[in-house]
């Protein structure tokens, strides 16, 4: 398809030497310990907005990479609608360029989504990367929109429902499960996603969560 040439979105880098970079290193270290519930908790004395910003960038990069491994199987013909199984279909709207939700193929939807998220992450007024620049007052609602109303969850849901056989063939399922579990524990810890949104993967979420109780 035409996607693979322009995909995948450039990885969003957190500037080395910045406080956010230190936070990312902290997140990676605690993740390495294998305790995901502990890894998502706000480190003592840290700013909540900054912690959510760093993790949002990290999830964007992870999903980018995971989806990148299956783009050849997610095409206009194989996935003419953006769905997560027969009961859940997603239509795209970003509230500015496309106000009324439109029906589109999964690769088109994910391309719109990743471009939209990238634009938000690159906007210094929303995601300041410079030390001492404060986060905007509406930062939490911006982060919630990226993580929820939209949306990164929907890419996981689509991969699990429509492409899990490809993920298995590529032997990527452990990577996908760990990434998704990390994402779910994070959004649960900070109450970032409405439970109803999670319905397409509710059984999987309960299964992954029960192993960590």
TrEMBL record:
Family matches, as InterPro entries: MOB_kinase_act_fam, MOB_kinase_act_sf
Cell inner membrane as UniProt keyword: no
Gene3D superfamilies: MOB kinase activator (1.20.140.30)
Keyword Cell division assigned: no
Coiled-coil residue spans: none
Signal sequence, renumbered to the chain: none
Residues binding Zn(2+): 74, 79, 158, 163
Keyword terms of this UniProt record: Kinase, Metal-binding, Transferase, Zinc
Name of this chain's protein: MOB kinase activator 1A
Organism field: Buceros rhinoceros silvestris
């Amino acid at each position: 398809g035409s996607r693979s040439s322009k995909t995948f979105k450039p990885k969003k880098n957190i500037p080395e030497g910045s406080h956010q970079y230190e936070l990312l290193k902290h997140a990676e270290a605690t993740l390495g310990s294998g305790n995901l519930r502990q890894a998502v908790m706000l480190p003592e004395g840290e700013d909540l907005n900054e912690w959510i910003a760093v993790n949002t960038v990290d999830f964007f990069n992870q999903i980018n990479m995971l989806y990148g491994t299956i783009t050849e199987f997610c095409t206009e013909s194989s996935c003419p609608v953006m769905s997560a199984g027969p009961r859940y279909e997603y239509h795209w709207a970003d509230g500015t360029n496309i106000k009324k939700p439109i029906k589109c193929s999964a690769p088109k939807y994910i391309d719109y989504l990743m471009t939209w998220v990238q634009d938000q992450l690159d906007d210094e007024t929303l995601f300041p990367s410079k030390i001492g620049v404060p986060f905007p007052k509406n930062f939490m609602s911006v982060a919630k929109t990226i993580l929820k109303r939209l949306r990164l969850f929907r890419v996981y849901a689509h991969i699990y429902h429509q492409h899990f056989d490809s993920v298995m063939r590529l032997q990527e399922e452990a990577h996908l499960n760990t990434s998704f579990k990390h994402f779910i524990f994070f959004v649960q810890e900070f109450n970032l996603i409405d439970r109803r949104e999670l319905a397409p993967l509710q059984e999987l979420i309960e299964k992954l969560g029960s192993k960590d109780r």
